[in-house]
Specification:
By secondary structure, the chain is of the alpha+beta class. It contains 10 helices and 14 strands. It has a domain of 153 residues: 3-Layer(aba) Sandwich (Rossmann fold), CATH 3.40.50. It starts with 6 loop residues before the first strand and ends with a strand. It binds zinc ion (ZN).
């Protein structure tokens, strides 16, 4: 049994304010021990900590939360074998991200922050010279052995890239996990050429499904310590040297079986009805593109 992680209270990462209200109370089972709940790729939702809303700027964030050092260690040790059950789908989703990036930049050097097992790096090298950083030892090893891409550094801080080194920096489902998103964006801006781009994907906490589902929304997870809306993400980008160029909802491709797993937290009759339909049609392994309109993808330009 792993030790309980050390916790800390934090202020708002967007405006620095300390005045907040509890938006969602911590669930039973939080904080999790080192059992994979922090896997960047985990499909475990629920069991999240206390989610607060800043009374000054509206940002949603988890506080108290696992200390930054403990968090990084969790990601370094993170293994998620289930990740590969959807490896084809993850590759297809990488191309969906690439499609939007290529509307604004067709070639050059690209840095992917939080590359996981490297599916996006592998897709992006069709157009770009790619570099990744990833804390998970397991993710780096997979990327090296199976995709033949070496990821040299675990974090941006460790990599110490020179100023203005990249044309494009990408963070796919990453910004909601990091302990200081403003500092990460500042470092991304520093290593980006003037006029270069940043691309982000993150759950949208102001989306219709997030509002309707409330505490049951799939986006609320123990590993997510920030919940952005288009507005709060835009403000954080503007504060750290960027100008938003394009923002839209991000749909994803997964098997019906995976989409079904997203419904396990929901009322049983809903789950059973969909499950019966999926099994009746025999389509568990078939792919489905679905835009639930509750993730946002966004391109911004370094000023
Ligand atoms: Zn705030």
């Amino acid at each position: 049994m792993a030790a309980e992680p050390e916790l800390e209270e934090v202020a708002c990462a967007l405006c620095g304010g300390n005045r907040s209200r509890v938006k969602f109370s911590a669930m039973k089972g939080w904080p999790p021990s080192a059992d994979g709940s922090y896997a960047a790729t985990t499909d475990k939702f629920g069991a999240y900590g206390t989610i607060r809303q800043c009374l000054d700027c509206g940002l949603l964030y988890t506080s108290p939360r696992v200390k930054a050092s403990g968090l990084l260690e969790e990601y370094a040790q993170n293994k998620d074998e289930e990740y590969f059950a959807q490896s084809e789908a993850r590759s297809m989703n990488a191309y969906l991200s690439l499609a939007l990036i290529r509307r604004h930049a067709q070639s050059g050097s690209l840095l992917d922050v939080g590359s996981a097992a490297g599916f996006f790096l592998n897709a992006a090298r069709v157009s770009f010279d790619v570099t990744g950083v990833e804390p998970s030892i397991w993710g780096r090893k997979y990327c090296d052995e199976h995709l033949k891409i070496k990821i040299a550094a675990s974090t941006l801080d460790e990599a110490k890239f020179p100023d203005g080194n990249f044309d494009v920096v990408t963070l796919l489902d990453v910004i909601e996990h990091v302990s200081d998103p403003g500092a990460v964006l500042r470092e991304c801006a520093r290593v980006t050429k003037a006029g270069g781009l940043i691309y982000l994907v993150t759950p949208d906490c102001e989306s219709l499904s997030a509002k309707i589902l409330g505490g049951r929304w799939w986006g609320l997870r123990p590993a997510h310590i920030f919940y952005f809306s288009r507005e709060t993400l835009t403000r954080l980008l503007e504060k750290n040297g960027y100008e938003v160029v394009e923002a839209k909802s991000f749909g994803r491709i997964f098997t019906w079986s995976y989409w079904l797993s997203r419904l396990t937290n929901y009322p049983k009759p809903v789950y059973r009805a969909v499950e019966a339909l999926v099994d009746g049609l025999g389509i568990r392994d078939k792919f489905l593109y679905l835009d639930t309109r509750d993730s946002v993808e966004l391109v911004a330009r370094k000023r």
